[in-house]
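Intended use. Records such as the Outer membrane protein beta-barrel domain-containing protein entry shown here are meant for training and evaluating sequence-to-structure methods. They are not intended to support clinical decisions.
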Amino acid sequence: MKKLFTLLAMFLLVQAQAQTINFTPFAGYVFDDHVDYSNGYGTVKGGFIYGGTLEYVIQDVSSVGLLYQHQDSQFDGFTGLAILPTNFDLGGNYMLLQGTRYFPVANDKVKPYAGLGAGVAWFNNKATEESLTKFGWDFHLGAKFSPSDRFGIKIQAQLMSAVQAAGGSFYVGTGGVGTGVSGYSTIYQFGLTGGIAIALGH
């Protein structure tokens, strides 16, 4: 699936030669999320995030885009009958196909917007180099401020989610004892971001 999103990104870049494509590098912060799972509980720690979007603009009122977002985080939790600690550094990534609707207002330099995205979320346990890939989605809303046709500033609030499907486990070894986050839990992280929108193409 990651290859499919890469091909889509290449297609959007080619289309930029004839249409308006917005490239928006961004950075921000996401907050902690508490998760309960079948054999314990834990917290996905908040922290700094960064990434970028390629956004294909359709008649200035809507867009289809591709988002990549990365977060270096930590999972702090307890699992198992003995309440064993399960703490490890966590790398979180999202690659989502997004649809966004822009809403006209009196000031044409300001464009409020809202949208949804869906795709893949994958996580890396940096202690064991284990990885976990799940379905991911987002809801985002914000505003774009455009002082010129080529550049704009985007301020956004977002909810990112990684759905933990039944049967999946994410393991870390602790003193020879296998512990992990079993299925039946979903990550929800609220965040705030800001970015610079750069118009490509004509």
